[in-house]
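Supplementary notes for students who missed Thursday's class. We covered one full example, reproduced here. Read the sequence, then the structure, then the short commentary at the end.
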Amino acid sequence: MRWLVLVALVASVVAVPSTADAATSWWTPEERLGADEASIEEVHDVVLTHDGRLLLLYTLPQSIRVRVQSRAGTWGEPTRLFANSYPVHLEGAAVVTDDSTYVVWTDGGSTIHVSQLVGNDWVELQPIVADGSVTHVDAAVTPEGRVAVAWDEYRSPGSSIVLATATFDGATWTEPTSLEIDDSLREIRLEVADDGTRVLTMRGGGTTTSPLNGVYAFTLVGTDWSAPRRLSNGSDGVERANIASTRHGVVIALRERNHNENDTWNARLITFGNGSWSTKTLPRQTLDVGGPALTVGPDRRAQVAVAYEDSVQGPWGEVRTYRHLGGATWDGPEIAISVQGAHWFGDGLGLAIGPDGTSVVTAGIYHPELPGLVASVRGPGKPWPDAGLLGVGFDNIVEVHPVIDADGVVHLVWKSGRGWWSTSGIAIPFDDIQPGAFYTWPVLWAADVGLTTGVGGTDEFQPNRSITRAEAITTLWRLAGEQAAPPSGFEDAAPNAFYTRAVNWARHSGLTTGVGGSNRFEPNRTITRAELVTLLWRLDGSDGAPPAGFVDVAPTAFYARSVNWAKHTGITTGVGGSNRFEPNRDVTRAEAFTFVHRLASSTDVSAAGIASPSAIDEPPFGLRLQPAVPLD
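Structure (token representation):
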């Protein structure tokens, strides 16, 4: 589907001022992760597997584990990759190729392990045995679809650190290429550009006297390492350097503190491509700057989100997004979230873009009466909507991992002061569709497969308005694949109206021959339930069926056979659970799209060339979604 996901609301909530009449996203109730085992210490990665499932790589005390979520939304049993009785430093990363999913991890010894997901099982492959103890490890995918790994080695007390990298082709490892550096380090990150250049960043040192204090980058072409390039002005206040491979090379995003400039904070966006570096420094802030969060969209352009907080002038918090256009050029900012009265804004900043263009931005907020997790989810091509407060009462949101799957469902895994949690949600394309209505999922399905884009180019579906004959026939034409046909010849069908091609197809295919035997189609008249079911029956092939048994359907009426078919196939069960069909009443848009969805869901129409329902034909994960609370 083309819309999003997410989280849930706790039932008790203080009053929140609203600037929107309807929720822009719905969320499933949050689920506590690790509730049945020891508390999760760290989440290393949340990714989609090669077959579209959600993967969680995490550590417990002295144990590194991985869990995979089924497509039904249920977390599988954890697989223990390593466990020991004494404290060790455990670190890992998940990496996904076109045809497989791998987890690369280390137990603090000299071995780098590689586990491959095969069905629901993990198979350990050939490991890398280093010449010293390994503390940090990261992985990326090469342009050829192979797994590249980078790690550090401490070979003896007091010696230099060795950075190393190797490539795995699914069976064997290449000979590692290594580089000695005269410093300690706290983190490494790896990406591979389209031309095969490896870019490795490290956050080194720990004191201002460390030789490589701050964030540095190294490039590797073949076996040739570059000299270290300093990316930040210092280590104090510099968070991890997020890194991603894009159409323009490799993009690195970090924040830094400027002690010599009134103790300001800023975000720095750095690009490496075609052998050269470029840098853009975003506006500085006298108080904290959150993030930046970095992701890559389906167009392989980088996007970043940066949180700005001002607890003196306001207080307020704001998340701005930027899109990379190449070199040092960025488009933006766009305001994704703006919250008044918020303190501690920007912790838990997250950003993700799905394959269909659905986007989500998250941030943690704190207010004496309203701590929680805020999210803004937008559909493809849409502006950022009003943000919604999701996890109410979740204090100290420090980390959020957002992922969006191919159906546009948003998955969140986040850490608060109460542990690790997960939730899922979906972006709603229409402002007037609410959870729990009988027509909710049929309308979302119809939007997903392109049967409706909103009334008159708006974000309204207007479920309770009667549908016109022109609208109904256009919907069926789209359902059948928008087939071309000669002009209908109806005297009241305009040659260039939105419904013209649909009416041509309907007459040519025998769905309609004119109203009451005339040469008129009456496109602007509302359509009755009897007329619509008759059109559906003809589209399906006009099969016979036993009598429906409705008390208000005469056996000799023109629509009797179509109503019999509709009852037999489950397209209708009666109005409001009664034994009445109400054939002469106008059809609402909600009823019409529900009928169409049921037709497309029927196994009887598999050979009719009708679009089948998408993954959104049932609520994601079988759970009832709840609306987010809109914020000012």
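Commentary. The first helix runs from residue 440 to 448. The radius of gyration is 29 Å. If anything here is unclear, bring it to office hours.
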